[in-house]
Design brief:
Blueprint: E1 2-8, H1 18-23, H2 26-40, E2 45-50, E3 58-63, E4 66-71, E5 81-88, H3 92-101, H4 103-106, E6 110-115
Amino acid sequence: MKYMLLIHQGTTPTPLDPDAWAALPAEEQQAIYAAYSEINATPGVTPGLGLQPPETATTVRVDGGRTITTDGPFVDTKESINGYLIFEADDLDAAIALAARIPAARLGGAIEVRPIMEW
């Protein structure tokens, strides 16, 4: 089964936030880079891409045939999705084990594990 692991960064420092990232010890920064490299090299993992912050998003709806766009989504920053990956695993337990290795899970964020529908 394939799972999408949605990375909710939460308060996790990232290189995109230079002040918060600089506050981490160099060893922790290196450990985060190493963990993501190791995860991306895991058999069954298709690395995803990072996402720009929620304030850069545009939400699209269609109402009565008319396209309506709004800025955002309007979510609390700690709820925003900052990245994702796809993992083909034998079962949910394997996907959960991989999610637990993602640095954001231990540094203030969360990882949502969701099965992908196969048509």
